[in-house]
Write a structure and sequence with these properties.
The protein is built from no helices and ten strands. It is mainly beta and 98 residues long. The strands form three sheets. Strands 3-4-5-6 form a four-stranded antiparallel beta sheet, with no helix packed on it. Strand 3 (20-25) and strand 4 form a beta hairpin. The radius of gyration is 12 Å and the shape is globular. The N and C termini lie far apart (33 Å).
C-alpha cells in the first residue's frame, strides 16, 4: 500500500521499480501519480492505468502534477515544460498540450 486517503486504501503500483515524484487527487477523486521515467499512473475505480508520452503527456520524466477544479491536470516535465492534460475518457482518448 502506498498510503491511505481517508477510509480508502490505495493499492500498490503494478511494478515496484516505478519511482514516484509527485501525486495529486483530482476533483473526480482519482489519484494521479507522476514518475521519473514512467509517465503518469492514474488510480480510478480501484485500478492503476498508465498514461505516457505516447498518450500526449510529451515526456515520461515528470516532476510535478496538480489538478484544477475544471478537471484539467497540469504536469511539470523534466524536458517538455508544463503540460495541460485532459484526463483520458472512458474510450481511452486524451488531449495533451505543451
Amino acid at each position: 500500500m502506498i498510503f491511505r486517503s481517508g477510509a480508502r486504501r490505495i493499492p500498490p503500483l503494478p511494478d515496484e521499480r516505478i519511482k514516484p515524484t509527485a501525486l495529486t487527487e483530482t476533483a473526480a477523486g482519482e489519484i494521479w501519480l507522476a514518475t521519473d521515467g514512467d509517465g503518469l499512473w492514474i488510480l480510478a475505480d480501484g485500478r492503476w492505468r498508465h498514461v505516457g508520452a505516447a498518450d500526449g503527456v510529451v515526456d515520461d520524466r515528470l516532476l510535478s502534477v496538480a489538478g484544477d477544479a475544471w478537471g484539467t491536470v497540469w504536469i511539470g516535465t523534466a524536458n517538455g515544460g508544463i503540460v495541460r492534460f485532459r484526463p483520458p475518457t472512458r474510450d481511452g482518448s486524451a488531449e495533451g498540450r505543451k
